[in-house]
Amino acid sequence: MYDMTRTPSIAAALVLLLSAPFASAIDNAPVNALSSTAVMRPALPAGAAALKVDDYKETDVWGRIRSGYAIPDISNNLVERHTRSYSLKPDYMARISGRASPYLYHVVQELEKRGMPTELALLPVIESAFNPQALSTANAAGIWQFVPGTGKDFNLKQNTFKDERRGVLASTDAALTYLQRLYAMFGDWQLALAAYNWGEGNVQKAIKKNQALGKPTDFESLADLMPAETRNYVPKLQAVKNIVGNPGQYNVTLPVIDNQPYFTAVDKTSDIDLAIAAQLAEMSVDEFKALNPQFKRPVITGDDRTKILLPQKNAEKFQLNLAQFGQALSTWTTHKITGAKESIASLASKFGTTPEIIRQANNIPAQTRLKAGSTILVPKTSASLHSDIAENIVDSAVMALEADRGEKRGGARTQRFKTKAVANSGKRILRGTSSTRKHR
């Protein structure tokens, strides 16, 4: 496994400082030369000890990614085609870069901590276009596109209230752990990437097939045995790697992403409404959701281990405003439906709200009703004002819907619906193929 640290050795740092032509050559070299030249270290020049190590520091995350390239390059028609395709869409690349900017520093930092190739930070470009709300038709979610079963394998909680496949911290940790496991299995990053997309079992079968025929088992030799999406997967990453390695060569301008943390994690000590959390942080709800996309309901529940992410400048505001708030942090509690007589209209009347608010808080479509056993959010009453939603309720709550029997459907049998959390419970779904994945 490639080994690198965020801070270069003293000697290497001083060498790079005093070797501007050498550094410039690296920046302008073709991408297939970056992997080797980035780790070269010329002899230490005389007088170099007079310089400070702190004088050498990447100021842009893109440069930091380039300096850690370590996966062997491939060059073929697919790479050329995808490189050309991305380079001809500068607006698209700029949009993805904008989406990536809050997350990229964290991803790179975690890669470096594990000694992993930093171009893996570009993988969400291929997976999700860095959109944490991306959801494929195979129900793969988040920037790393975990399907429910694989998410559970890596302890990503998925319940009515949150989906950690979308959370930046949890999903990045899971994705890098998964990639490390695949690399340990295959000893090759390109095959590990193919397995991330296609499944390790499929890659193992392809390897055995080529071995039986006396053929090589590297990625390009196995490509003809792979589905189209997997066959294009590594070439797409190589294409993005090429552009990030030398954007000027491809007439692409990458927005500057500062080489410093964008967000910090803040402990949550009790239930808090998402809107109140955003208010205390002096952020819009949309800005707050961009960093905390795992929360699916208007209240953030969970034990004390649940954290919220805030930009560095807003975290201090949050703490100051929280200390002075003096009001209930959460206005929601749960209610379990016991029978058909509990309609959304009757619940709205009971809890002093409107049917529309209950539907919106619980993502209940129009012309559907709740089935007995469903647990939903309702406004707090005076009796529940100072109590949090119990953790066992958070973990076990389900919601099942059926067509509203008050709607006439020409005698058609009532169609029943379930939420995605219920529909996918206990069921494993393999990673989608090109016909089932959607990243827009």
UniProtKB/TrEMBL annotation:
CDD domains assigned: MltD-like
A Pfam family per the record: SLT
SMART domains: LysM
LysM domain sequence ranges: 333-378
Keywords annotated in UniProt: Signal
Entry keyword annotation includes ATP-binding: no
Annotated stretches, region: Disordered: 406-440
Signal peptide region: 1-25
PROSITE patterns xrefs: LYSM, TRANSGLYCOSYLASE
InterPro entries associated with the record: LysM, LysM_dom_sf, Lysozyme-like_dom_sf, Transglyc_AS, Transglycosylase_SLT_dom_1
Family: Belongs to the transglycosylase Slt family.
Protein name from the UniProt record: Transglycosylase SLT domain-containing protein
Species whose genome carries this gene: Massilia jejuensis
Taxonomy of the source species: Bacteria, Pseudomonadati, Pseudomonadota, Betaproteobacteria, Burkholderiales
